[in-house]
Amino acid sequence: MVDAHYREAYADNELAWSGVWEGPPDPQALRWALAAAKATHYHDRSMMQTLATVYTVLDQPDKELDAEVTAAHSAGGYDHPPSYWALTEGLRARDLGLPDLARAAFSRVPRDDTPGCSYLPAQRYLKDLDATPAQVEPTEQFQPP
Q1: In the chain, which stretches have pLDDT less than 70?
Q2: Are 45 and 75 in contact (CB under 8 A)?
Q3: Positive or negative CA dihedral for 30, 37, 83, 102?
Q4: What is the pLDDT of the chain when averaged over all its residues?
Q5: In sequence order, what are the residues at sequence separation of 6 or more whose Cβ sits closer than 8 angstroms to the Cβ of residue 144?
Q6: Quick count: other Cβ atoms within 10 Å of Cβ 93?
Q7: DSSP 59
Q8: How many structural domains comprise the chain?
Q9: How far apart are CA 74 and CA 45, in angstroms?
Q10: Cα separation, 44 vs 28, whole angstroms
């Protein structure tokens, strides 16, 4: 029973992961990630990291941070590879309006064409950053009234 329960959680986790990386984010990804995390009683590190990633992609930074903290204290599961961390670092930098840091992080993701890997979404985000016009710095300092 435990193995079947974990296999279902793992399948939900994989669906959530592919739901945020293969094309535009799928709104179902959050439901799958939450189901996977709940099925493992929020104690599986990999499930919590996926949930944090879904929150990041869906621009919910407060919930993302809570999930990352929970993941850090979780003993079960596996830890994502460095390419995952570079990808999520790039997303955070992008969301904070730091495009140069985002580009640097996305560029650190090594080439890998395996489905579900971090390389393909990193390339997509790099392309999106390159398509965004550079912000012009204001020429005057803001003076409060």
Answers
A1: 1-3, 23, 75-80, 115-116, 132-145
A2: yes
A3: positive
A4: 80
A5: none
A6: 19
A7: T
A8: 2
A9: 5
A10: 20
53-80 pLDDT, tens digit per residue, is 888 888 887 787 788 777 777 766 556 6
Contact call for residues 119 and 113 (beta carbons, < 8 A): yes
CB distance 86 to 108 below 8 Å: yes
Buried/exposed 76-91: b ≥16 CB within 10 Å, e otherwise: ebeebeebbbbbbbbb
- Whether residue 94 sits in one domain with residue 68: no
What pTM value is reported for the model? 0.65
Q: Is 4 exposed, middle or buried (0-12, 13-18, 19+ CB in 10 A)?
A: exposed
Question: Is the same domain home to 68 and 112?
Answer: no
* Any domain includes 37: yes
Tokens of 105: 């992080």
Q: Whole domain around residue 24: which residue ranges?
A: 2-72
Quick check: 36 and 12 in contact, CB under 8 A? yes
Those residues whose C-beta lies under 8 Å from the C-beta of residue 36, and which sit 6 or more positions away, are 9, 10, 12, 13, 16, 44, 47, 50, 51
Q: How far apart are CA 10 and CA 3, in angstroms?
A: 10
